[in-house]
Structure formats: C-alpha cells, structure tokens
Amino acid sequence: MQQTKPQLSFWQIWNMCFGFLGIQFGFALQNSNVSRIFESLGADYSNLAVLWVAAPITGLVVQPIIGYLSDNTWNRLGRRRPYFLWGAIAASGALFIMPNSPTLWFAAGMLWIMDASINVSMEPFRAFVGDMLPPKQRASGYAMQTFFIGIGAVVASALPWMMTNWFDISNIAEPGSVADSVKFSFYAGGSIFLLAVLWTVVSTKEYSPEQLAAFDAAQAQIDQKKDTNTTTRTQKQYTRGGSVLTAVGLILLAVIYTNIDALDQNLYILAGGLIAFGVCQFVAAYMVHQQYTKNGFAQVMGDLFAMPQAMRQLAVVQFFSWFPLFAMWIYTNSAVTSHHFGSRDTSSVAYNEGADWVSILMATYNGVSIIAAIVIPVVVRTLNLQYAHLINLSLGGIGFISFWFIRDPAWLVLAMVGVGFAWASILSVPYAILANVLPSNKMGVYMGIFNFFIVIPQILAASILGFLVTKVFDNQPIFALVIGGCSMLIAGVMTLRVKVPQ
Fold first, then answer.
1. For the domain 10-229+307-495, what is the CATH code?
2. Left if phi > 0, otherwise alpha if psi is -120 to 50, otherwise beta: which for 133?
C-alpha cells in the first residue's frame, strides 16, 4: 500500500471538481434572482435582508455538522460523495419549486431549504480536495473548483437574460407572480445541479478508510509541525464566554425593544445570534463538566476555540470579505433598478430591464473570476499569497464603491471586473493557506468551522444593512454597496496580518 497520496491526472482532478459546476449553478441562480423573486411577490426592499437571513443561519449550523459527519462517514458511496448526492437531490427539487412560490413567506421557506441543501453538497467539496490530492496538487484542485465556479456562475447568472433575448421568453411578471424567464432558468439550474454532481459521484472513487489511515500515518510528521493549537477550553472559559455574550445580547434586545421606532427590527437578528452563541457555550460548559465531550457538538465547539493561528487570522479577513458579497447579493437588484434605471415598480419595463442588467453584471464578475483564477497563481509566484489577496480585495472594494459614482449602467461592467478578481481570490487564496495548516483528520470539520466566518458576516449584514439603508441613508440601497466596498478594503489590509506557513 502506498504511504503517500499519488498524483492525480488533469482529468481526474477535472472529474472530482466537476460537481462544483452544478453547485455554483444553483448558488448563482439563488444569489442573482432570489431578491427579484421576493420583490415580485410583494417584498419591500427594506425587508429583503430579514427574508434572506434564514439561509446563512442554516449554513452556520449545517456546515460544521456536515463537515464533522463527513469526516466520520464511510459507506458504499464513500466519505464525502453521499453528502454531495443527497444535497444535490434536495437542492434540485427546491430550485424547481422556488419560482412557483405562491406567497412571499413560502418563497422565504424555499430559500431556507435550498440554501441548506446547497450547503450539504458544497461543504464537503473543500475537504474532498484535501482527501484526494497530495499537498503539492491542492492548489490545482482549488483552482479547478474556482474555474467551475466561474463557468457555472456566468451561465446561471445570465440565464434570465438569455431566456428573454435568445428564446423570447417573457421577463415581465404579473403582480404577485414571477417572470417566466426566471422560472425556466431555475428549471434548467435544478437539472444541471443534479447532473453535474452525479458526474463527480460516478466518475470519482474515494480512498478507503484503510488507505486514508496509511496516508495519515505518513503525513503525521508533517501535521505535528503545524500550528494545530490543541488547547482544550475549560468549563470556566465556556461559562465566562457564554455569560458575556448572553448578557450583551439581552441588553441589545432590550435596547431594540424600547427604541423600536428609532431602530430597525432586523437588529433582533443580531441580538438573537449573540444569545444563541452564548447558550451554545453554556451547553458546552455543561458537557465538559459531565465529561461528555466525545459527541459532535462538543468536538465542534472545542475545535472552534482551538483553531490554528493562521486560521484565526484568516477568519478576520473572511469576515470583512464576505460582508460586502452578501450586501451585493441582497441589494444590487434594488440599487441598480432604483439608482441607475430610476424605478422601484416591479411591474414596470424600466425595473425589469434593470433587473435583467443585474443578471448580466452578476455573470460579468463570475466570468472575470475565470480569468482571474489563471492570473492569481502568477501573481502569487511573483509576490506572495498575502499581497496577491490584498491587491484583489482592493480591486473589489473599489469596484463596489464605484457603483455610487457611475451613472451609466453600461459602465458598471467595469466595476464588476474588480469584484470578479476579488471573488476569485476569496474562493482560492484562503483555502490554499488553510490546506497547509489543517490536520488531515479534521479537514472536514475545520473547513465547516472556517465557513462560520462566511456566514457570520451574512447574518450581520442581514441585521444592520436594512437599518443603515432605511434609517441612515434615506432608503437608498446603493449605499449598501458602498459600505460593502469599504469592508472589502479593510479585508485587504487585514490580509497582511496573516502568517502564511512556509
């Protein structure tokens, strides 16, 4: 039995990553069109954030659980592949149902189901690269994933426009309904999602537990050199942390309740999140006290507070990187239709032309990410990972801020070029760093925990962006993108603090 993982061919890497094409197809359709669906069903743009919030909260719960379970699963389908398949089946079904939602709250529920299912498929794919590839090929694996992410997102984001302009399918929705162009786009997306994931499931064979054990034994000496930070969190530390967060959450809850006219109800989400994490720490403290620490919950909580140093530093970067992305997915449609096309009437021609143009803009940044995925490794070799990420995030921040200054919507394509470089970098550089600092036997759970710092800024965005747009910026959603741009510039600067292992 080989003691080190063999090098895989280009086509083997292609097959193992092909499923990401389908996953991104569903993800891009969701990000580009769900706000449009909500608005078509009667949602006010000021309430879009709260309608979106169930999705990231679900991801916060689902991702570490799926990571932990996939680390400890082996059946006839393998280790990670069962989750690819089950998630794809559920997500495809949700994609077919979503555009036929009869009511706004039914659509919000379908978003919850769809996002949860996408997360079930998506989360193990990152760990899959670590399982299947030797360290020297992991960068190629993540680059291939980024390539498929770009391809899938370009086509999926442009689908409503293509349905209208290529197939003459109506893009005008009757009041209380969704445009046919969006419906048929979701039908196509659901089919492609399932077929692409099936390709990876069928064409890729995972290593057996015995083989992985042999590889792990050979890798043990390398893992011992990594900053795995095995410090165990004590009952007292959990209790103290839980007390502080719960108290802060309750105080914030009281402030919001007594000043609801001056504040925004979406802030309840932030207060609830603080209280929930405080309660989680109380539960962990009890488990430590009872010496019941071998279960998944206790282990995930322990690993969360035992992250490697580089992972903790990257978490800060991820937080400020993903906040603007969530702002973009929620508010670009309302920002562009109102600021650049001058309409908030979802049944008007101007609004739907603007919404279609948003689909093109979403396709643009994803298309640019394909090129960026090729350029970024060259920049990394010339400079280093940190400076490459700094440059790309800075381009993205400038792109977001420029939405306010650009008046001709055609020039927004240029802004999306910067966003595309940032997007490609966010999808690859942090994972390239992580792959070299994570112990192999916890690849799945740590990738899931790392995604906390994708989800947490989304929850924060859902909590405060509605308040800022309505109360501070006079109901102008364009400022959500400006705030996002400033956040991405901060993320770029914070990248310089990350200690990349040599």
1. 1.20.1250.20
2. beta
